[in-house]
Design goal:
It contains two helices and two strands. It is an alpha+beta fold. The chain has a two-stranded antiparallel sheet. A hairpin with a 2-residue loop joins strand 1 and strand 2 (about 60-70). It is elongated.
Length: about 100
């Protein structure tokens, strides 16, 4: 009986681990898409700004309140690279989850 209950506890832990890995993968995908969107927004803005520069905000947080016109494209590239990293890591999580799912069945 004790062995059976230990096995059930282990299965619950694995299942919870699997669910949390899927949640992390989903959050990273969402974060990657939002970063990509911000990069595209800054890229399309280019150097067409009024005044000395622009303020860059992401998810309600101020990244920089005075980005000069010359640096806008480098900020866009930074957002693109960040989105690529987030999407690669989320892809690794999804791949790991699918491996565990195939191994379990």
């Amino acid at each position: 009986m004790v062995v059976l209950s230990k096995r059930l506890i282990m299965l619950r832990g694995e299942k919870m681990n699997n669910i949390s890995r899927w949640v992390i993968a989903g959050v990273l995908i969402l974060f990657g898409v939002l970063l990509l969107n911000k990069g595209l927004e800054l890229w399309s803005l280019g150097t067409d700004v009024d005044g000395d520069g622009i303020g860059v905000f992401f998810l309600g947080f101020e990244i920089n309140n005075r980005v000069p016109e010359e640096s806008i494209l480098s900020y866009a590239i930074g957002f693109f690279i960040s989105s690529l990293v987030a999407l690669i890591v989320s892809g690794a999580f999804v791949r790991t989850n699918l491996k565990f799912r195939n191994k379990a069945s």
